[in-house]
Structures are given as structure tokens and as C-alpha cells.
Write a structure and sequence with these properties.
By secondary structure, the protein is of the alpha+beta class. The protein is built from nine helices and five strands. Strand 1 and strand 2 form a beta hairpin. Helix 1 crosses helix 2 and helix 8 crosses helix 9. The protein is elongated. It starts with a helix and ends in a 7-residue tail after the last strand.
Length: 225
């Protein structure tokens, strides 16, 4: 009898989503619906509510590591996989959108992609987006990961990759795990060094974006690049 009740509840959740989209669901219901695809024949509402309580919101849940997810009672590997897969798919969706446009005319596409990929990372990391002459994305690559507050960047490595990808422009992105996005003196100095280095090769540094959970900081928008 309980299994029939659970199945009926799951069907109601799915219909609610199909009729009204994500806006028609409470956050815990959206998580609950997702879990139904990983956990058969079990009431997952208590697990969904526990996940929301622990990670505060949907973004906190998607940013959680496998170890953090598994620390919640009732969460098995199948559930951690589907939660992580959702975030990776979102990242790929935003990457495809970014690749389809002139990033100078659609800077929000880069910011959305950068925040999805890096804002929730526990350690500081550094990514470079390589652009062609039409300001379309040739490629992007994480070139460095460091500690919670430090990442070592070698401009020579950026130049080598830019030449390999035949890039005419670059956008630098890194995260601040603290959540605060204001650049440090070291961030500003590194940006100037990379700008001067690639300029000798007729490669433009188009922006440096710092992302964190509180938002983002664009060197171009703040007129310091």
C-alpha cells in the first residue's frame, strides 16, 4: 500500500513539473523529483528536505562534493551521480551558449558559464577562454588549481596554449572560494603581466573575471583593464 502511495506521489510531482515547470515546485520538491530517478520505491521527501537543510539552497546542493552529499543519511552513490550530472549538464549547456555568440556583445554568457563552472569550487582555480578573430570561443581550459586561497599561474603556459589554439583574444577567469570577488593586488599585478606578455604576440586580453558565491567582478566593467 505504501509503495502505491509513493508511486502516486511521484506521478503527481512529475505532472506538477510538466504543467508548471520548476517555478511550480518548492525547492525541496524539485530535489525530491530529481531523487526519484535515482532511488526506486522509496519516499525521498525526507532526504530532499535534509539535503536542502544542509546545503541551504539549490546552488549549495549542486556545488556539494560527493563526500558531502554522501554524509547525508539516505544518499547513495546513484543519488550523488545524478546530482553531479545535473550541474555538469548545466555547465555544458552554458558552454554551448557561450560558444554560439560574439562574447563581446554577450558578456553575460561568459559570466553565467564562469559562475556555473567555478563559483562553487573549494580551492582557487584559474581558467582561460581562447577566442578567435570574431570573438567566438575556440576553446577553454582550466590551467591551474591551487589551495583555498592561492593558485600559481605561469604566463608562459597561457601564451603556449594561446598559440596552440591560434587565439587572437583571451578572457581570464578565476574564483575566490571566500565568496568575495574584489581583486587582490596580486590579481591586478598578474593581469597586467599577462596583458603585456600576450600583447607582444598581437593577442588581446579582453577581460579578467573573478567569480564567487556573492557574484562576480569584471576588470573591464570596472575600467581597470
Amino acid at each position: 500500500m505504501k509503495e502505491k502511495h509513493n508511486q502516486g506521489h511521484r506521478e503527481r510531482l512529475r505532472k506538477k513539473f510538466l504543467n508548471a515547470g520548476i517555478e511550480g515546485l518548492h525547492d525541496y520538491e524539485a530535489i525530491e523529483l530529481l531523487l526519484t530517478f535515482a532511488v526506486p520505491r522509496k519516499d525521498v521527501k525526507p532526504i530532499a528536505k535534509q539535503l536542502l537543510k544542509k546545503f541551504k539552497n539549490i546552488s549549495g546542493l549542486l556545488d556539494a562534493s560527493h563526500e558531502e552529499l554522501r554524509s547525508v543519511a539516505g544518499i547513495a552513490e546513484s543519488s550523488t551521480v545524478i546530482i553531479s550530472l545535473v550541474k555538469e549538464l548545466c555547465g555544458e549547456y552554458l558552454a554551448d551558449k557561450m560558444k554560439e555568440c560574439d562574447v563581446l556583445s554577450s558578456p553575460e554568457a561568459v559570466r553565467d558559464f564562469a559562475r556555473m563552472k567555478m563559483a562553487g569550487m573549494r580551492d582557487e582555480a584559474f581558467m582561460v577562454i581562447y577566442l578567435n578573430t570574431k570573438n567566438h570561443v575556440n576553446n577553454y581550459e582550466m590551467i591551474c588549481e591551487g589551495t583555498v586561497d592561492h593558485a600559481v599561474i605561469y604566463p608562459r603556459k597561457i601564451v603556449k596554449k594561446a598559440l596552440a589554439y591560434d587565439a587572437s583574444g583571451l578572457i581570464l577567469i578565476h574564483n575566490h572560494p571566500s565568496g568575495m570577488c574584489e581583486p587582490s593586488k596580486e590579481d591586478i599585478s598578474l593581469t597586467e603581466m599577462i596583458k603585456d606578455t600576450v600583447k607582444t604576440l598581437n593577442i588581446r586580453l579582453l577581460d579578467h573575471i573573478i567569480v564567487g558565491k556573492s557574484g562576480y567582478f569584471s576588470f573591464v566593467e570596472k575600467d581597470i583593464l
